[in-house]
Amino acid sequence: MGDAFIRHIELLGYEKRFFPSQHYVYMFLVKWNDLSEKVVYRRFTEIYEFHKALKEMFPIESGDINIENRIIPHLPAPKWFDGQRSTQNRQGTLAEYCYTLVNLPHKISRCLHVVNFFKVRHDDMNPVTDSQIKKPEVFLLTKDSKKSPTDITGPIVLQTYRAIADYEKSSTSEMALKAGDMVDVVEKSENGWWFCQLKNKRGWVPAAYLEPLDGPDESEEQEPNYAGEAYVVQKSYTAVEEDELTLKEGDTIEVIHKLLDGWWVIRKDESTGYYPSMYLQKAGEVSTAVKSELRNRGAPPRRSTIRNVKSIHKQGRKQISQETYRRNSKKYIQNQRKMRGNSQNKANVIIEKNEPEDNKPKAQPAVPPRPSKDLILNRCTESTRRKIL
């Protein structure tokens, strides 16, 4: 395939570690040209030394000869004492630095100095720890702060989930699990694959195999939206189970229920069924390289295929059958048609009422019926009664 190079570097956040003494390391998700993704950990002092060496290697591009020629980004020197506040506040600058670094000319962005610095080390896979000291605290960078360095709102502690069944990985980027394992979720993707870490192991795990510790995950849509959201199929899929749909690339569908295991309930005309969310894209959105890359992965396992009767997914959540989805969706479509028909009829009535008065036939007075003999004898005067006797 040729020499390895980095396609993208994303700052995930930082860890507060307590061994051999308290210090902070930044977490980077490094995406390589072979489509592999690795998480590496670097102290800021290491990053700054890397930065200084890079400037020495490329004096013209670093502006040492002429400041106007500088294209290598700036990076502030580390403080005498780096605490949690400075570590947190530096995230925006560091995220921007990595973005600029990867987009420099290839002679810089793909040089051995850059490639070797972000390669996975032994310590990345097996960090030095002490069982007597509490485990590292993880702080995840918010999505908004990744977009703008000025929008950093503060750290987010990673959520812990429990594995409900054994899972055997099928690729090097995934992570195997045993039932009962406690994992920290670094990144949740709506395609059903979550990036997790367990002690010194890290990798992608199907969300269907994970459950929160205290109840159903609140980020999942609890109720279907039968009005539906318009999506476009980006990759064809042939149904394997009876409750799945077979669709072709380019088909337009409506999503009526988004589930965390990456299998969404969709509607095509009057048919409903499950479809991998990673093969769908919201109507009107532009496809990105990241989304296109994710579609090359296989669809995650469905939650219904995992046998575990004790799972929170089965106990604390209302299970909706495919027949219920189909019936309620069909009922919604029929009600919409009736409402459209009624609105048209009302419009026609309004038009008729607005017709000119000259075109309408004038109403004739109604002739009252003749009263009966008994009614006259009981209610009329003596003179009127004499006339009928």
What does this structure look like?
With 389 residues, the protein is of the alpha+beta class. It has a domain at 6-140: PX Domain, CATH 3.30.1520.10. It contains 12 helices and 15 strands. The protein has helices at 44-57, 84-89, 91-102, 106-109, 112-117, 122-125, 143-147, 289-294, 312-315, 322-353, 373-379, 382-388, and strands spanning 6-17, 23-32, 37-42, 137-140, 156-157, 159-163, 182-188, 193-198, 201-206, 210-212, 229-233, 252-257, 263-268, 271-276, 280-282. The strands form 3 sheets. It has a 5-stranded antiparallel sheet with strand order 3-2-1-4-5. A 5-stranded antiparallel sheet has the order 9-8-7-6-10, with no helix packed on it. The longest helix has 32 residues, at 322-353. The radius of gyration is 34 Å and the shape is elongated. The N and C termini lie far apart (122 Å). 23% of the residues are buried. Mean pLDDT is 81; it is low at 146-156.
In a few lines, what is going on in this structure?
It comes from Prunella fulvescens. This protein is an alpha+beta fold and 389 residues long. It contains 12 helices and 15 strands.
Main sheet: which strands, in order across? 3-2-1-4-5
Mean pLDDT, as a whole number?
81
Report the end-to-end length measured between terminal Cα atoms: 122 Å
What is the correct CATH architecture of one domain? Answer: 2-Layer Sandwich
* CATH topology assignment of one domain: PX Domain
Taking all Cα atoms into account, the compactness measure Rg is 34 Å
Question: Care to count the β-strands?
Answer: 15
CATH class assignment of one domain: Alpha Beta
- Helical residue percent? 25-40%
DSSP summary: helix tally: 12
Task: Please state the overall shape, judged from the principal axes of the Cα atoms.
Answer: elongated
Low-pLDDT regions? 146-156
- The sequence of SSEs as H and E is EEEHHHHHHEHEEEEEEEEEEEHHHHH
Quote the beta fraction. Answer: 15-25%
What structural class do you assign from the helix and strand content?
Answer: alpha+beta
How would you name the CATH homologous superfamily of one domain? Phox-like domain
- Describe the biggest sheet? 5 strands, antiparallel
Protein name: NCF1 factor
Main location: cytoplasm
GO biological process, one term: superoxide anion generation
InterPro entries: NADPH_Oxidase/PX-Domain, NCF1_C, NCF1_PBR/AIR, NCF1_SH3_1, NCF1_SH3_2, P47PHOX, PX_dom, PX_dom_sf
